[in-house]
Automatic annotation (TrEMBL):
Protein name, entry field: Uncharacterized protein
Cellular-component GO terms for this entry: membrane
Keywords (A to Z) from UniProt: Membrane, Transmembrane, Transmembrane helix
Entry's localization field: Membrane
Membrane topology: Multi-pass membrane protein
UniProt xrefs under Pfam families: SURF4 (PF02077)
Top-level taxonomy: Eukaryota, Haptista, Haptophyta, Pavlovophyceae, Pavlovales
Membership in a protein family: Belongs to the SURF4 family.
Ranges that cross the membrane: 135-155, 185-204, 216-241, 248-267
Keyword Membrane: yes
Domain of life: Eukaryota
Amino acid sequence: MPSPPRRDVAREVSACASALSVQLATALAENVNVKSVHRKLSSFSRMLITITFAEDAWRMVSDYAVQVRTMDELVEHGTNLVPAPLTRAMPAVSAALQIYGVAAVVTERQPTRGAAVLLCWCVLHPFVYGQGSNILFLAETVTVTGGLLILLAHWRQGQQREVARASNGADHRTAELGDDTLTSVLHLAGRVCVSCYFVVYGLLKLQSTLSGTRTVLSLPVGLVHGCLMVVLCYMSLLLIVGSKSRRVALLLSAIMFATNLYWHPFWMRLGDGASSELAHSQRHLNIVLNGVGGEQAGQGGAAARAASAFDQRGKPLPLALRGLAALGQAAKPRLAMQISVFDHERYFFFQRLSTVGALLLLAVHGPGRVSVDSEASGTVSLSKLMHVVKGND
């Protein structure tokens, strides 16, 4: 007796998935204004990529004395490029440059100039603050730079379209070819820079995994970790060549955002029980030493009086209060350490948000003409671009 025909389950599942995706795309096209969503995502990406510059400018303005002291310490150690006479002016210059760049990019009033200013600051910033040997810091700065390059390429494309609508002359088409070449180079350089952090991070982690001590328990963990880093490097390679770059950039931005919330929750650094207890002890000490309104006297004066065991009237403290005074004196450096950790975590949190913004820009605006995706759609390929560049030479 012949057996009944066997149904191809995999083919049916694939057909159902394709039909569902078509229905979903049709529903989105009918109910969602795609152009409006695209504009909003583009604006959101611009805000994200500039948020680290805005936060750093606010830090310069709100904590100017600390920034000057930091610059002086870097000069003493010889780890920055700023001459000693300019250390007091450097935070103000930094704040002014970043405020102008952020305002110009976000409002799109002078986007090209604003992006150029932020690009220049990206180049200078690691060396001004003595981070020239910090590989991961440099790589993340290069990634933010890549987002700015993609933004410049997008603006140039928009200008080219406007000019193309206004003129159809042969001379203009020749000029447009040169503009397309420069725009394509900006897109390519932007993709390479955006993937820089992930390539460097993946290679460093792979090196750490391969060079670490191997035990029976650590071998499976190291194997999984190494495989994840290989996948990360592969995804970075897809970004560089422009293959499936929108989806890869969107996936990496989601991963980067989630890990940023996990590794740099700066809002929790001053909210734990230990730091709250220290702050409460310091406030209590100030009130005891200075009176009910004595918090205005500041921690410095209170700690100095605590060290000498005298109150503000010069009278010796009771023995019962000297222990509290000693506690306040001991709490001060620990509070300073908590505040320092909070400050650093906040900076790295917003820097990672700018990296997320750079990836979103790539997902929104695409890889550009010089990419595998673009070749598949029949536009400019890398070989054609190199031919044009050699012809111009």
